[in-house]
Design goal:
By secondary structure, the protein is an alpha+beta fold. Helix content is about 20%, strand content about 30%. The protein has helices at about 5-10, 50-55, 105-115, 140-145, 185-190, 200-210, 245-255, 310-315; strands spanning about 15, 20-25, 35, 40-45, 70-75, 85-90, 95-100, 120-125, 130-135, 160, 165-170, 175-180, 195-200, 260-265, 280, 290-295, 300-310, 330.
């Protein structure tokens, strides 16, 4: 690449807020798939002959079911069961590729490295070596076909061509693309012939609609995997055996009642908020949850929030402590159990 990736995108009309593309000079066309730069997400690459043994003893997913054609959702937890990160993981050239929040990588790597010293493997932040993109929309598959690229058919299946890794997203309405940085400019220009470049909020909209939230630096070591609904998204394998945090995760699942979970909500119109915003209920003296991620492309604004189930069941959740701005529960594409106290 003759320029940096942000400089290249800026030349294509990108407008930035920090590292995040907020929009392009031309609005996206409704007739075309959406093309999104995923720079706020990153890639961790783990290599070496002991990698599988290391990861099997650390992750909620079964690493033996991960290969070059199959990714898995999973989490890496502390001994107390709190998530250091959650991720999609697949293999590429025998390395394990982790797709996760970029600002969660430093702590993820530092924590995992404490165990990696006992195995013949290396852990590296490879975010600068790969450009992450998403193609979203019902025509995403035909777009890749027009470019001569293979399209995996089932959710979280992976195909690779010319080192470009293509992962089928939930709901089969798009793809995650991990492209070597050296090919990224030409690849973007080719995709742009069939897609409309758009801001990062379109990725957030898709994730909110699918009920998938990512652990970022702000909420690391705060939530159990079940509080992000990973048990409903096949992100926890309860039969794989021991891993760090497994005792707490399993006990929560089988012996205790989970008091909170991840919900999709609509916020009151004309309200300004951000992720990390606390939510309230008249029946409680303190916060009953917080917003984890937001989608600003729709009105009213939609969000994913970890909420106490008792407040959700009572339909009594507000954005403010004056209880004047009520939030409304929206459906998720998977079933969750609202029982619990």
């Amino acid at each position: 690449m003759s320029t940096s990736w942000p400089e290249f995108l800026e030349a294509q009309g990108a407008q930035f807020n920090g590292e995040q593309v907020v929009a392009f000079s031309k609005p996206p066309l409704s007739s075309q798939p959406i093309l999104v730069d995923l720079s706020p997400m990153g890639i961790v690459q783990i290599s070496g002959e002991g990698s599988d043994k290391l990861l099997q003893g650390q992750l909620t997913c079964d690493i033996n079911h991960v290969n070059e054609s199959q990714a898995k959702l999973g989490a890496y937890c502390t001994p107390k069961g709190r998530m250091v990160s959650n991720f999609w993981v697949w293999q590429f050239n025998n390395d394990f590729m982790f797709f996760l929040s970029r600002n969660a990588i430093t702590h993820f790597n530092q924590t995992l490295s404490k165990y990696a010293v006992f195995y013949k493997c290396s852990i590296s932040d490879s975010s600068d070596n790969w450009v992450r993109l998403a193609i979203l929309g019902s025509e995403a598959s035909s777009t890749l076909t027009q470019l001569g690229l293979p399209t995996p058919s089932d959710v979280l299946q992976v195909t690779t061509q010319n080192q470009i890794q293509i992962l089928a997203l939930p709901a089969k309405q798009g793809y995650l693309l991990s492209c070597p940085k050296s090919q990224a400019e030409d690849f973007w220009l080719a995709l742009s012939q069939y897609c409309s470049p758009a801001g990062y909020s379109y990725w957030q909209e898709y994730m909110v609609s699918q009920g998938i939230a990512w652990v970022d630096q702000q909420c690391q070591e705060k939530y159990l995997p079940q509080q992000f609904n990973l048990q409903h998204l096949e992100g926890i394998n309860f039969k794989k055996g021991c891993y760090t945090g497994q005792e707490v995760v399993a006990r929560t699942q089988y012996l205790g009642k989970l008091k909170s979970g991840l919900y999709r909500i609509a916020l009151p119109e004309n309200t300004a908020t951000d992720h990390g915003q606390s939510l309230y209920s008249p029946a409680h003296n303190s916060s009953v949850g917080e917003i984890i991620s937001l989608n600003h492309t729709t009105q009213p604004t939609e969000a994913l929030a970890v909420l106490m189930k008792k407040a959700v069941n009572a339909n009594n959740v507000y954005l403010d402590q004056d209880f004047s701005k009520k939030v409304h529960l929206l459906s998720l594409p998977y079933t969750i159990n609202n029982e619990g106290s």
